[in-house]
Design goal:
149 residues, mainly beta, six-stranded mixed β-sheet, 11 strands, globular
């Protein structure tokens, strides 16, 4: 099943998967940001698990020299086996497009959200520091608000 944007979707007890990919994360970083955002948070000492601005989240993950990092975006779900909650925050996507990339990756992965604005996002990781699996969870009520509003 696809969401109309060419993105495979599946549904299980852990929420609906709207994006899934694996790649080598150059410099051990994965960025989740609003399309067109230039402002980026910076690490203070390099030991942080993440740095955050409302329109840009940078996660410290396993570097590409140690293998690929799996990234999923789900609508709903909780309590992911083998993962722990790293962050719950409000992100702002004024463009209604979530971009997932690494600092030097030329081809950005884009997920078209149903609406622009503020989104509650929960970030689950399988280990700390430097996870190789990241699950980003969006709230179902926010995802479905466009259909009911």
């Amino acid at each position: 099943m696809f969401d109309g944007m060419g993105i495979p979707m599946s549904q299980d007890d852990s929420g609906k998967v709207v994006y899934r990919d694996e790649w080598g994360a150059q410099y051990g970083l994965v960025t989740v940001r609003d399309f067109g955002t230039e402002e980026a948070p910076t690490f203070d000492d390099g030991e942080e698990d993440y740095v955050f601005l409302p329109s840009n989240l940078i996660l410290a993950v396993q570097p590409d020299t140690e293998g690929d990092v799996a990234v999923e975006v789900r609508v709903g779900g909780a309590d992911f086996v083998g993962h722990e909650l790293l962050l719950e925050a409000q992100m702002v996507f004024t463009s209604s497009v979530m971009v997932i990339t690494t600092p030097t990756y030329v081809d950005e992965e884009s997920l078209h959200l149903p609406r622009a604005g503020s989104w509650t996002i929960k970030v689950w990781v399988n280990s700390r520091p430097r996870p190789n699996s990241v699950i980003l969870v969006l709230e179902p009520s926010e995802w479905n608000s466009i259909k009911s509003g």
